[in-house]
Amino acid sequence: MPIRMPTTALRTAGQAARGAMGARPASAAGALTFARGKATLPDLSYDYGALEPHISGKIMEIHHKGHHQTYVTNLNNTIESLAEAKEKGDTFKAAAMAPALNFNGGGHVNHSLFWENLAPANKDGGGEPEGNLKKAIERDFGSFDTLKTQINTALAGIQGSGWAWLAKDKTAGTLQVITRANQDPVTGNYAPLMGIDAWEHAYYLQYQNKKAEYFKAIWNVINWKKVAERLEKA
Amino acid sequence: MAGPYTLPKLPYAYDALEPSISKEIMELHHSKHHQAYVTNLNKALEASAAAQAEGRLHDSAAQLSAIRFNGGGHINHSLFWENLTPASSPDARPEAAAPQLLAAIGATWGSLEKFQAAFGAALLGIQGSGWGWLVREAATGQLRIVTLADQEAVVVGDTPILGVDMWEHAYYLLYKNDKATYIKNIWQVINWKAGETRFRGPREDAFKVLKTQADI
Fold first, then answer.
1. ipTM tops 0.90
2. What is the number of structural domains in chain A?
3. Is B177 on the interface with A (CB under 8 A)?
4. Bridging pattern class, strands A34-35 and A38-39
């Protein structure tokens, strides 16, 4: 799989056309693309097998080509229905799209951010945060180890499907660990910096019911350079 | 601490539901996932009771989420195992095993096929982990399809008749992201006799499998 993941992989065609005109969204959620008005599955910047042995190639392949693609497809269908409803002035139908928009839109955004904040262990994956990110983590959590423990506890505590995020609280300026159920995206006062997928499909083929082992292993493939970049823009 | 709740034995072998549900799935699902709900339910109940006995309501109340989640997990799975059966069993044949339930389904949805289509659509619509249930509604006695998130359980009023687990752990090793095929295939191993018994009997009987040694 070629390296073709632009820093901002989520743009509308209009935004892409404006290019350097400053249309690029400042938030981390700028990492997704709409080609010709449609959401598209972003390419991974590494091979499916590149995160092994921490995440198997089989998991990555189904997760990206199967699950993520389904969110993209259903998001596009939802947006189309929404446009039809808008055209007809049918506000009831438009409002009925809300759950599907949140779920599939969230699924697309969450996975796009997730792929980017992972990297092979022999490239940018693993290790420790540096620079301003390291300082912010030490300021807000005391240490990197405490942050990891807190995220692992948050992940273990998710009752069902969901995500754990390292996020920036925009008003307080501090870093926080938050969880989101199902595909609820990180929005509002929070800027997502780093996400970990706690859906069973993210680990089950390799780890089965031993999710604590997945949560432990994933630290070997976290791309802290990308997380630091997101913090600078948040 | 053994705890009051224990993992119920399956009424069939782990491989008995093949090819609809694989042996590996059944073994992990029962001996690991369900066991974890039982273990964590007992722990949370004990922690809650201990805190309450010591006058720490805040610490006792803090366990409620774990009791609800793990208690729901224990209830849902216990009912689920009972409403499955090998495809070769006479209990898997709705016409013979569930005449009254089938008549009520026909009266409500028009036909078994239409009910299965409606139930399947409800299952596919679950956003995240959860369960789908055919229930007998307390207020009206009518059959209803309900979906519940995570390990929420049919515990308030309604009677659970048939449940299908839509957590990914219930099908992923065999079906991966093709949950529609899991839903299609699970009809082969639905225990209609169990559904008929729950439908015709008093609500309390549906939960009999959950009784502890102390209750009996």
1. yes
2. 2
3. yes
4. antiparallel
